[in-house]
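hey m, so remember when u said the tokens were messed up on ur end? i reran from scratch. heres the input so u can diff it against urs
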Amino acid sequence: MPKRLKIISENCIGCKSCELACSLKNSGEMNQTRSRITEITFIEGKYSLPYNFVSTCRQCTDAPCLHSCPVAAITRTVVGKVVIIDHKKCIGCGKCIFACPFGAMLFNSSTRKAFKCELCAGNPACASICPTDAILFKYAKPFYAKAEDLKMKGIEILSQQNLANLKNRQKN
């Protein structure tokens, strides 16, 4: 059983440390648009209490992004079963972004390539920095991109946001 990120949104305080640590480790800059993890704060209900939703790649066993890539730029590592992108092969077509039901596949407008969480080569910066243990890196059962897992408002918003970003960037 491989290690995965376990997200406990109820523990999240919305500090966005995970986003900044992720972007720094993966792109060398503290820039939330380069983060592979996203935190969204919802304010809903009668008392307008905030709810923090954290999302990143779930390393799905059935990985729709992997199967959608027309040039086999997305593969899975033998050790750890992590879904990774070969940026030399990626043609920036965006099919993986459309295929990801969780909004976790992102698009870099500078490189015109897809990017996603690859678990920081086994030491995720987001899990290391999270002050409330809302993000844990631990052994977990396989995860499948099933319809019942997609019925979360945060996932719907992230998916729509990522698709809109891709469409806008491809026009430029």
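this time it looks ok to me. The chain has one domain: 3-143+152-171. if urs says something different then somethings off w ur setup not the seq
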